């Protein structure tokens, strides 16, 4: 459509241009709203990303929020196909010579042979006793061998039943009842004497419930399962094969690689968050002026920088672990330096981890004296966990009105 112009009149005005400018003037509020809408949408998207990065910091820090996690250990076996071990942070470094004499076994019973798993086994009362506790159940009507297995599974704890097809030319089916766990404490009694009116199963023993036996550094030990947690302090053993003449050495050492990976994960998560906040709160960032973003930025940054006062804060302690702050504000991690920490009484530092938190729970004032005490008794892992606390405190702020 061609534009209308009165420029040929005596006025000499370019009325087409004037009208276009007036229309644009009227549209200005719409343009502002559209711009504001996009700005809000950008902020919502950026805050969602911020939440994800905060949670990443929180998750990484929580992997280091207890003394046992920070001083975790690793156990290795000289014969992993026969014995393995898992170490907790309380496991003492050293070596243990172990002979696995016998494995713990679960009780197992079998019935006589049946021609069909649908054979009638009768009706009446059956009972199962496990750990000194007896439970009875009354069966009525016609009950099959397969049905009895299902009844045992559905109604009795500590045992399981199945019908086995042996493949024999005649009478291939047998009822087999197993104890759920190995060890003498899990022995059971199955009483079917109260059944009648069919071919009642007669149970015989395939295996008895027995404890495991082993020697640890020449000491005879009885274990109630094949996964004992109380034989060696801080270790869970996994007994796989028995051999009275095969010596197996379990070696326990500080898991410096595992701890290092956790600390590096914490540093990486912090740097990712710090870099993102720095970009998004800048003049051209989508979160410039946003109160939630400012709060996060302030808290996370102050956690690192404010503790420098007096040389007793986070960076002083963290630097001893190979963590320093770069010129751009991000953290740098020296793996080699960090791995020297376990040789420098890491347990003494770990004992300091929760002292400030206990004081806060006891309601002590957070005045200057308390802050000084907090700095003097805050270990590196406590500082890392405080990052997670900051993340948790601002977790829901992205839903505030923009």
Write the layout of secondary structure elements.
Layout: H1 15-62, H2 67-70, E1 73-77, E2 83-87, E3 94-102, E4 108-110, E5 123-130, E6 133-139, H3 145-155, E7 159-165, E8 173-179, E9 188-196, E10 204-207, E11 212-216, E12 219-223, E13 235-239, E14 248-254, H4 256-280, H5 291-305, H6 314-319, E15 323-325, E16 331-333, H7 335-338, H8 346-350, H9 355-361, H10 368-376, H11 380-393
Antiparallel strand pairs: 1-14, 2-13, 3-11, 3-14, 4-8, 4-10, 5-6, 5-9, 7-8, 11-12, 15-16
Distance between the termini: 43 Å
Mean pLDDT: 79
Q: Please count the beta strands (DSSP E, at least 2 residues each).
A: 16
Low-confidence stretches: 306-316, 348-381, 394-402
Instruction: Tell me the count of domains.
Output: 3
Q: How helical, in percent, are the residues?
A: 25-40%
What is the makeup of the main sheet?
5 strands, antiparallel
Q: How would the global form be characterised?
A: elongated
- Element order: H for helix, E for strand: HHEEEEEEHEEEEEEEEHHHEEHHHHH
Structural class: alpha+beta
Strand content: 15-25%
Strand order of the largest sheet: 1-14-3-11-12
**SS summary, helix count:** 11
Gyration radius, rounded: 36 Å
Task: Explain what you see.
It is a single chain. The chain is of the alpha+beta class. The protein has 3 domains: 38-68 and 257-399, no CATH class; 73-104 and 211-254, no CATH class; 108-207. 37% of the residues lie in helices and 23% in strands. The strands form 5 sheets. A 5-stranded antiparallel sheet has the order 1-14-3-11-12, with no helix packed on it. Strand 5 (123-130) and strand 6 (133-139) form a beta hairpin.
């Amino acid at each position: 459509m061609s534009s209308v112009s009165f420029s040929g009149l005596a006025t000499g005005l370019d009325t087409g241009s004037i009208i276009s400018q007036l229309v644009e003037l009227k549209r200005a509020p719409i343009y502002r709203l559209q711009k504001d809408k996009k700005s809000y949408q950008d902020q919502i998207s950026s805050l969602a990303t911020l939440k994800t990065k905060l949670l990443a910091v929180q998750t990484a820090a929580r992997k280091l929020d207890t003394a046992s996690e920070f001083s975790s250990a690793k156990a290795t076996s000289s014969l992993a196909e026969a014995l393995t071990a898992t170490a907790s942070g309380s496991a003492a470094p050293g070596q243990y010579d172990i002979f696995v004499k016998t494995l713990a076994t679960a009780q197992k019973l079998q019935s006589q042979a049946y021609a069909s798993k649908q054979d009638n086994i009768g009706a009446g009362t059956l009972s199962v006793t496990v750990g000194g506790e007896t439970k009875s159940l009354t069966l009525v009507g016609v009950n099959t061998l397969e049905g009895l297995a299902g009844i045992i599974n559905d109604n009795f704890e500590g045992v399981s039943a199945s019908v086995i097809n042996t493949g024999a030319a005649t009478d291939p089916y047998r009822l087999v009842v197993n104890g759920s766990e190995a060890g003498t404490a899990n022995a059971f009694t199955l009483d079917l004497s109260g059944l009648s009116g069919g071919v009642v199963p007669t149970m015989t023993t395939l295996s008895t419930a027995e404890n495991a036996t082993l020697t640890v550094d020449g000491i005879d030990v009885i274990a109630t399962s094949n996964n004992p947690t109380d034989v060696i302090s801080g270790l869970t053993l996994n007994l796989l094969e028995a051999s009275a003449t095969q010596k197996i050495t379990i070696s326990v050492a500080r898991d410096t690689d595992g701890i290092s990976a956790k600390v590096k994960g914490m540093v990486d998560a912090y740097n990712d968050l710090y870099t993102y906040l720095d970009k998004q709160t800048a003049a051209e960032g989508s979160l410039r002026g946003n109160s939630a973003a400012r709060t996060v930025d302030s808290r996370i940054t102050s956690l690192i920088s404010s503790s420098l006062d007096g040389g007793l804060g986070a960076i002083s302690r963290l630097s001893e672990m190979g963590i320093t702050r770069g010129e751009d504000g991000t953290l740098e991690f020296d793996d080699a330096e960090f791995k020297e920490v376990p040789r420098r009484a890491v347990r003494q530092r770990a004992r300091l981890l929760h002292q400030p938190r206990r004081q806060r729970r006891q309601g002590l004032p957070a005045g200057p004296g308390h802050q000084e005490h907090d700095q003097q008794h805050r270990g590196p892992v406590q500082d890392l966990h405080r990052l997670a606390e900051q993340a948790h405190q601002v977790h829901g702020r992205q839903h505030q009105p923009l």
